[in-house]
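Many introductory courses stop at the sequence. We go one step further.
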Amino acid sequence: MHGQKQSLNRERKRARIFGVSQPLKSRNRRIMEYLLESIKSKVNKLKKKTTNSKKKKPYVKMDKSASVKVEIRSRKARNLINKTLQAADRPGNRAIS
């Protein structure tokens, strides 16, 4: 308790020396807290805006046409043929993967 009184007295002396009264000091503190809160809220709003703009917009997924399906199948078949030929060129116990 004694330490708290000393620190309170020190604060009052400093306030008298620098010409700052207690009510003015608390008012300035409230103003600073208000400014800090308003800055925080503005920063949060800006963060939300940037994250919303980065989100991908939904799109309608289209089915593959018959010609595209044939093209995919032929590509897979070509790749399988190439792997088989490579395995045939290297005799041994290698499995085709």
